[in-house]
Amino acid sequence: MASSPMAIEIRQPLRAASEPLWFRGQLRAQLRTWLPVLAFAMVFVVESTSYCGADRTSAPLQRLAEAIFGYGVGLHWELIHHLIRKTGHFMGYGVFCLVCFRGFWIELKCAASRLARQLRAHGLAILTTFLVASADEIHQRFVPNRAGQFSDVLLDTCGGVALGLVLFLAMQAAEARRLARERTTCRESACAEAAV
User: Fold this and answer.
1) Which pLDDT tens digit goes with each residue over 114-160?
2) Out of 17-26, 35-44, 102-111, least confident range
3) What does the alpha-carbon distance between residue 171 and residue 51 come to, in Å, rounded to a whole number?
4) Do residues 136 and 44 touch, judged by C-beta distance below 8 A?
5) Integer Cα distance of 155 and 96 in angstroms
């Protein structure tokens, strides 16, 4: 007895009409661009709690410093602790500015020139750093053992400007080296063609 062939129908999963395929790719690209900025901002949220106030970080940091440098550190601990915290502000927001620059650099890929793209991305990154630092200090005014200070906003923004300037100069130097290599390559190829 012969068996009859069975027909199997394969169905594609239905896509929602409101979510075309290009949207999902666009959403993934936006997440890859801005998720690092959001993650870094969440670090600031955690650090702005009462658990990270100067009164809570002083003793553990002092024990660590004494273990590394000896007990003489305790004589000047208030100043050292203050410098550690302010350096953390400066460097933390400086790195945040670089992460923001990366996001804006990716978003502004259609800029007219490379220099315009760099300047715009740096300006937006510094502005974002200033706004996030301001929001952080405003939030700290409502936390019992923290005190929001505008001087910290300025220090944070200066960290963003300083690290942004270092990146800008490094990018300019890299671009100048690339152009010099291209000119050398063009001259060598022109000399080779002239010799033939």
Assistant:
1) 889 999 999 999 999 999 999 999 998 998 888 889 999 999 999 99
2) 17-26
3) 39
4) yes
5) 13
Answer whether 127's CB lies under 8 Å from 93's CB.
Answer: no
Phi, psi (rounded to 5 degrees) for 179: -65, -40
Residue 132, φ and ψ in degrees, nearest 5: -70, -40
Q: Which residues contact 193 (CB under 8 A, 6 or more apart)?
A: none
**Rounded Cα distance, 19 and 94, in Å:** 38
The DSSP code sequence of 123-175 is: HHHHHHHHHHHHHHHHHHTTSTT----HHHHHHHHHHHHHHHHHHHHHHHHHH
Length of the chain: 196
Whole-model pTM: value is: 0.79
Q: Helices 150-195 and 77-107 meet at what angle, rounded to 10?
A: 50
